[in-house]
Amino acid sequence: MGKIIAVANQKGGVGKTTTAINLAAALAEMQYKILIIDLDPQGNATSGLGIERSRLKRCIYSVISGEVESEEAVINTSIPGVRLIPSTMGLAGAEVEMAGQEGREKILKHKISPLVFAYDYIFIDCPPSLGLLTLNALTASHSVLIPLQCEYYALEGLSQLINTVNLVKKRFNPELQIEGIVFTMFDGRTNLSIQVVDEVKKHFRKEIYRTLIPRNIRLSEAPSHGKPITLYDPRSRGAEAYRELAREVVEREKERKRIR
Ligand code: ADP
Ligand code: MG
């Protein structure tokens, strides 16, 4: 059975989508079977994988609304071993529509449950809010992976997110774990980056990955070519960092299984 991991942080621009795509691609290089679910109405994961959104007939919204089964919404990407349930603009209205439904936090969980046997890892790329879509992602997931940008307010946003995770655990998904916290856009030349990492370490030492994702221009260029960094510039620092993160994710999983 595969593991469902929500990539979440209510702040925009912290590296959620970059992490979802590139971690997925790095795990696929290791021969794992991966599915990405683009749960952001902005659809950056979809376009970043080179999929033209306006041509799509089906997306995660068609799944949530019950129009199609989850399997029917899965499409191939240019990355071997990585498939995608894309997002279209239709998803923008989903939160409002779901709001009135009974069990509204569990809709996604029920819809995607058949997929869990076909993949090793399923990443849900969350929108930048703690609204109903993110609550659905957290309820549907085994764990949450949190990208943190090395900036002054990082810790503040993190406590708010952890509160939401605890709320979801209590009410909708007792099994939910913190997969890990990954620092993105790290710049070892600035004191701020180093200070932020040290500060977060005081509170979340266990959760933080050793791998620091550096600020790397190649990482920001890759989406406009519709490629993950591992294909766009396989030898770049960004590609190496996401491969290292992938190894760490797998290592943690093995360690957890050993302890259980
Ligand atoms: P989010 O999904 O959290 O909104 P993104 O992954 O889209 O964030 O990243 C925001 C912007 O920062 C994008 O333009 C992306 O290309 C860029 N970016 C993300 N990570 C890095 C990095 N490590 N180095 C340089 N640019 C990055
Ligand atoms: Mg995003």
UniProtKB/TrEMBL annotation:
It comes from the Bacteria. Gene3D superfamilies: P-loop containing nucleotide triphosphate hydrolases (3.40.50.300). Coiled coil: none annotated. It catalyses: ATP + H2O = ADP + phosphate + H(+). InterPro entries: AAA_dom, DNA_Partitioning_ATPase, P-loop_NTPase. SUPFAM superfamilies: P-loop containing nucleoside triphosphate hydrolases. Residues 3-178 form the AAA domain. Belongs to the ParA family. Dimerizes in the presence of ATP but not ADP; ATP-binding is required for double-stranded (ds)DNA-binding. Interacts with DnaA. This is Sporulation initiation inhibitor protein Soj.
